[in-house]
Structures are given as C-alpha cells and as structure tokens.
Amino acid sequence: MIDANTLKITQEFVAGSRPNGLAWNTRHGHLLVADVQDNNVRLVNPRTGRITNKLRLPGRPRWCAYDSDSDRFLVNIMEPAGVSFLRPDASAQTRFLSISIAGPHGLDLDRAGRAFVACDEGALVVLDLKTERELKAISIAGAPDVIWLNTRHERLYCAIGKPGVVEVTDTKSMTSVEKIQTEEGSHTLTFDQLRQRLYIFLPRSCRVMVYSEEF
Fold first, then answer.
1. Domain 1-98, what fold?
2. pLDDT digits over 101-143, tens only?
3. Sequence ranges of the domains in the chain
4. What string of DSSP letters covers 109-142?
5. Torsion of CA 16, 17, 23, 26, to 10 degrees
6. Nearest to 18 by CA among 81, 78, 60
7. Beta-strand relationship, 50-56 and 40-45
8. How far apart are CA 32 and CA 86, in angstroms?
9. Angle subtended at Cα 189 by Cα 12 and Cα 167, rounded to the nearest 5 degrees
10. Would you call 41 exposed, middle or buried from its count of C-beta atoms within 10 A (0-12, 13-18, 19+)?
C-alpha cells in the first residue's frame, strides 16, 4: 500500500502466489485480489493487512471490478468464458454469466448499469448488469488487455498489444470510432478521469504516450 501524497510504502501484505486483478469495494473499504496461479480471490482489509476471505473461482481470473449499485464484485474468467458475480465480502459466488466470446480479459463498468468485457477472440462484449444478459459483441483489432472507461465522454479505451493499437469505442452508439497507433507489445494503459488524459505505456521503446481528450 502506497501513500499517494508522499509516495512512500506504508504497508505490505501477502495476497496470493501470483496476484493480478484488483478491485476496490468503495462501500466497505476492502480490496479484492484475483490470483491467476491458484484461481482464487482474496479479500484484504487494508487497515489491518489481513485476508478476511478466500474463494475458489471456476477458472483462471483476469480483471475484476466492483459494482457499487448492486454491491458486488465482478471477475472475468478466462475459461469457461464468463463473468463471476461475488458477494461483497467474497464469501460466495452468486452467479456465473457465460458469454459468447472466448477469453474474457479487460473489464470496466459504466454508470448506466453495463459491463464491458474485452475478449481474446477480438471482441468487446457489452453486458446489461440489471438483466444479466449479453447486449452486443463489438469487433476490435485483436486480442486485448487493459481497458479504461471515460465516463464523462462515454469512450472506452482498449489496449491491444498486437498489432499495437488502442481501440476507442463510443459506448453510446456501441461502435468503434478510432484506432490510436502505439507499438507492438503495448498492453497497458490508464486514464485520468479528472484531467481527461490517457496514458499508454510503450515497453519496447521505454516511453509513455499521453493523449488529452478534448470535446
């Protein structure tokens, strides 16, 4: 755990053998950690550093998110392809929603009650969280990794390492509107909602591309 003001490490705790996805429970102040080696999720209390719950998943997890409207966690499962819905204390899986595209990877939620799941087979799947049904599969340029949602302007950014682009999807019309050229191997990006800046990490050339959204 890092203090954002001082950039100093304030605490360290063990959270699995190969932790990957993280999701913050905004209501209860707990952190969900998804482990891609033992296929478990662990709920961590950051104030004490203690693991309060551990749960076995139906397959390898990828990214995860917290749905504050329904007070539950969502975890992408690579195979069988789908999304696990977990209780807010990670004590049980309440639902497993199968999806039509193989390899769920990146995951984000919007304020309209939808989940966006970027899949290895080259598609962005849109889920309605209220009905728990698949709405649409939008074709993208390749196998994705990290996605980030711009809630202010209803844009979703998806990093695709090969051929090396960031696919931009309009979440209102649910269509792809732009492809930003990066470089092969660029799998990671992040978005600053306050400043409306997109940061794309380029591992081969050791650079960071910064884009500013202007409407």
1. Thrombin, subunit H (2.40.10)
2. 999 999 999 999 999 999 999 999 999 999 999 999 999 999 9
3. 1-98
4. E-TTSEEEEEETTTEEEEEETTTTEEEEEEE-SS
5. 20
6. 60
7. antiparallel
8. 10
9. 150
10. buried
